[in-house]
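pinning this so it doesn't scroll away 📌
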Amino acid sequence: MWRRGIITAALAVVLTLLLFLHSDVPNRIGNLGSLLETFLPWLGLAVPLLLVVALLRRSATALIALLLPAVVWLNLFGGLITGKGSAGGDVTVLTHNVNAQNIDPVGTAKDVIASNADIVALEELPEVQVSTYERQLKTAYRYHSVQGTVGLWSKYPLSGVQPVDIRLGWVRAMRADVATPHGNLAVYVAHLPSVRVKFDAGFTATQRDRSADALGEAIAGEKLKRVVLLGDLNGTMNDRALASITSQMRSTQGAAGDGFGFSWPASFPMARIDQILVRGVEPTKSWVLAPTGSDHRPVAAQIKL
């Protein structure tokens, strides 16, 4: 009984090391560290698979070894399993990558309005569809601004609207002051560069990482105390490459969400790359909405100012 299942036990130890030491997996070769961290929660699926093997082998060694990755996974992600939302919240915010190839922008705009959010950020707005979104959303949102391929719609007045340079050569980020009934709020909207997994180049995230650093610098220099970042960051909260942003802001999903809040791909979400991050405000609820015509799902949060 003790000699059986040595290979299964060894795999459990390797799984434990990947979970516990994920930040030490180097990015020098194909950004493997960031790739691992993007899908890190899914490593937990290996535990029940190895458990089945250990039971079939009747291996006490493997069963004991499996306690290690189970405990580490629960320590990392157990807090996301239970709901943490609470009643209240002064403002509802929403962010949605609407997809440049969206064949139903009208329907997507109607879904956004149905969310009853007070502040809405849209990313990946193609120039030919901007007028459609403006026309559809104008009755629900009196104030709006589109900068490059990102836009902000609000029920409250906007001021200080300006693009944010994230070192791309074109505009994919913006900032605005939103005058809510509970005081001014600095709102950033961003769409960081996409990443790809290629056999010859690995996880191609270099441009995304540079833009993340630039966005982090802009937010660090923000003078208003209350800040919200809405956008498609093409990375998860576990990804070290986003540390310049995530080190100074809280995830509404992590603080007040129910579950992992995966948002992409819309048909079968496997990662939360669409983020609502806050500083100086208290998240009270965070959730993922139903699919629209996009390949991303919208995400929303209530915050208390």
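📌 and the second one:
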Amino acid sequence: MPRPRTHEEPECGWPLGWGASLREFRTFLAVERGLSPHTASGYLSDLNHLAVWACGRELPATELSRDHLTAFLVAQQSEGKAPRSLARLSSSLRAFLSFLRMEGGEGAGPEAVVKPPRPPRILPRTLGESQVEALLAAPDTSTPLGVRDRAWLELLYASGLRVSELAELPALSVFLDEGFLKVMGKGRKERLIPFGAGAERWIRAWLALRPGFRPKGGELFVGQRGEGLTRQHLWRLLKGYARGAGLRPETVSPHVLRHAFATHLLDHGADLRAVQAMLGHADISTTQIYTHVHQARLRALYDQMHPRSHADR
């Protein structure tokens, strides 16, 4: 039997039909479901663990049973996989088995995957409004790069964009007069997001300077040589501005600003469905976690301010 590959190796060489199945599944994810390469790689990374386990037992993908899948998940749990990782792994298994069933496979279907324990709810880390203001004021706006960085910081907080969406945002997708931007999010789903006067002001200032950088592409934000900014570049810049604002860099990330955007909107009375639409969440339950953050902040404020909050009952 060919040597089973480790999960770090590419899936194309798996024996027992696994290679072909995983290649076809990757194509299905990209073409029919429209998932990004990054998301598809997450599915395949999970399934490589299954392929290692199954090939070691000479099990083709089409012959997996409920007992096999349960034994695999138990083995993963015994290796110390966290509940959240097991939940993601189970989701990947169900997607793969649904695909095999759709292709006419006679093995186990998605219903054979035992539902893992619900992972603990982790409230997203966020920033207070004064902390965000300090962060926005950190760039030196007497320089062109400082104006650029003030503009993307303002836009990130004003719109709740994912950092990948910000990095790829075309200049032509920002409609300043209307106060809206158009973004292509996960699953190639397009959404419109409003932004305010603060972001508009700094984007206009940056657009006046942008031609001097000789942009090589259509991205709104470019580097000194005209290249589009990467997620990693934006991340590093943000960490530097966090230090300049007196914040602990480990507590600040582009996703934390996305959380701040959602939490502060709810703090000021925004409708949950509107926040869901702006964030690009497919499921309202994903957005509802921000209501827990909002409630926690209200509870802390009440305990701090109300004269009877600590009275004996």
